[in-house]
Predict the structure of Conjugal transfer protein.
Amino acid sequence: MENEQNKKGGKGWLIGIGAGLGCLPLLMIGLFLLIVAGMFIIIVDEEDQERSSSFGSFCRLEGEVDFDIWDANFADSSKVGALAGYGDTIISLADEYGIDPVLASAIMLHETGRGTSNAVRNYNNPGGIMDPASGWSSLMRFPSMEEGLRYTMANLKRRIIDDGLDTIEKLGAVYAPIGAANDPNGLNQHWVPKVTEFAAELGGLIMNCEGIPAIGNDAFQIIYEEMLKYQGWGYVWSGNNPSTGFDCSGLMQWAYAKAGIQLPRTSYEQYKFSQRITEDELQPGDLIFFSTASYAPVTHVGMYVGNGKMYDSNDSGVGYSDPFNSYWRPKIVGFGRVADFSE
């Protein structure tokens, strides 16, 4: 029933040459920040909007890697490319250097386009690190992926621990500042959202991050009022903005962004991104997830608005639905919270 943009493969590559801070790969050593003009490779969702999160990335409440999610990702080359099979190595190296393996991996996946870049495939270079011996004009080559991972982790340790850039937001503000003069195409705006999305796919950060942010009822009203603008609009496959119309997850992503909450694109990604709650814990602003088709575990999402109602985009259009009626209730997969709107 529900479209998901991923099914249509809406990914695009932007490969370019840039100079200076605004377009540097993250994992450059300090000197590189001052003198380099080099290559950057960044993956951008063609339908990604100009949004960023106003609060810290979500933590796993247990403070430990979710190994079911982690192992499933690093066993699948379609998800991590050339990094498949190196999940245990990354965990071990992250522990050695005292950094979050989820954060490190999210950055590497972003820098290498899910492990598919030339750097990681042909140079064993998962950080896109340039070679100082070449005057920063060519990629460093490592004899093995293990050595490339170790070098990358050591660089990350310097950035995260020594320089205190210990969150996605802090790292992004330094290495991909929005509005930088040397970022005329606005690519830097995608860095924080995409790294955050990769971290969510891997189960959530385990260090230096927030749990569920308490942002209050005013933020919920911003989201709700944005959704109400589109009441009565038709459902649009792959739609995620007012110019195209909305599918279910596109409506959630667009409206929540108005309150500074960056959600992943699809309902299944939003399910993984959110904190699990029970039906009894539902508050306005929470998400309800459903399975309406066989192509993914979660294929539909709506926002709970109170009084037993949700607001969503489905085949009947954008508007109110009863998630607990005889049609929807059997399809409920779970409930999720991305912010506390109660205060």
